[in-house]
Target: Porphobilinogen deaminase
Amino acid sequence: MTVRIGTRASKLALTQTQQTADKLAAVGGFPVELVHIKTEGDVKTGSLSQMGGTGVFVAALRDALLANSCDVAVHSLKDLPTGAAVGLSIAATPQRVDVRDVLCARDGMTLAELPGGAKVGTGSPRRAAQLRAARPDIEVLDIRGNVDTRLGRVPGLPGNPTEEVVAGKSCDLDAVVLAAAGLERIGRLDSVSEFFGTDVMLPAPGQGALAIECRTDDAPRQAGNTEGSNGVLAQALAALNDDDTRLAVTAERAVLARLEAGCAAPVGAYAFRKGSMLHLEAVVCAVDGTKTVREKKATDGLTEVGATLLGIEVAELLLAAGAAEIADLAAS
Model:
């Protein structure tokens, strides 16, 4: 049995999928094969938020699973819509890596050191809103492209292929904001000038985590459930799952689901287990950064149901504090 693993063809997607494939093969003892899937987000240009947010990278992979063109798909978990996909299951969430957002700025500057009017690029309304809240005097610009392309917009960063200033292409920005996890996976953490604390910038729900998705019939069978499988693939997937990561991202995604927030809504959330408690903090920002609502709560209910309820409770606190009034939560 060769397990076919669907992936986007970007450098980051291929890297994290290959790492996952190697672990699956080692645990399951079966050969694996990567299947490249072209998604709408890889083909179209323009603002990511206007195309439906990061969910545009997911649909084609899910279609490939349902069409039996691959057996497993590896997603950045923050890209997954919160709604269930009929016939598919998140079979595993491996141990999460660094959840933080980072600044990659010219001359090694931090956010506080950037001059007024500095141009900072990001494709995320969540990051843009929190940047504007922290530094209302800078210019935040919407950018697209893979990680290397975005880093190439900042002069002087290690690994950049050119120092030529070309508007919209290279060396034309003072900084960009990216996820630490992605930079770590492709070996470009040397471009980071500042790691943002969650007090400055809460990450996207699921950031730093991967979701391994498969057809429900092939997913690990849960106790007391007739769905799923006890086969070799299912057992290998179950071995890659990290329970604490699963609880954390379940709580974070429950915030999004209760807020009925679209992919482009300026919402951040971060949950983590400490001892016998699961802690969750979430934020909703006005896109222009002028208003912010932030709430936190903890639970000792260390189950997926408990994590979901925690997310719902924090979302209710956000709504009661006026989250729906300051941001377009339905933004797609």
Remarks:
- The chain has a mean pLDDT of 92.
- The first strand starts at residue 3 and ends at 7.
- Residues 58 and 116 are 38 Å apart (CA to CA).
- The radius of gyration is 20 Å.
